[in-house]
Automatic annotation (TrEMBL):
InterPro entries: Fe-transptr_FeoA-like, FeoA, FeoA_core_dom, Transcriptional_repressor_C. Residues 6-77 form the Ferrous iron transporter FeoA-like domain. This is Ferrous iron transport protein A. Transmembrane segments: none annotated. The keyword Iron applies. Gene3D superfamilies: 2.30.30.90. GO terms for molecular function: transition metal ion binding. It comes from Chitinophaga niastensis.
């Protein structure tokens, strides 16, 4: 069931989504090198108590992102 396009930073723990696109800046190249590519499924594993950083599962491994980095990733919740 599709839920709409939102920022990755808006997802809560345990939710999964498919990466749609990035805000175009220098950060999107770094994110793609880490496995965050359009079409890839991501799952929110943990969120730190103050909301930063966010631990996600992507491309078969855990990756920690700052909330400001997750703000640059647009996803579609599944």
């Amino acid at each position: 069931m599709k839920k709409g396009i939102i920022k990755l930073s808006s997802l809560t723990t345990g939710k999964s989504a498919v990466i749609i696109e990035f805000e175009k800046d220098d950060l999107h190249i770094k994110l793609m090198e880490m496995g965050c590519v359009p079409g890839e499924t991501v799952k929110i594993e943990k969120i730190a108590p103050l909301g930063d950083p966010i631990s996600i599962m992507v491309a078969g491994y855990n990756l920690s992102l700052r909330k400001t980095e997750a703000d640059h990733i647009w996803v579609e919740e599944i």
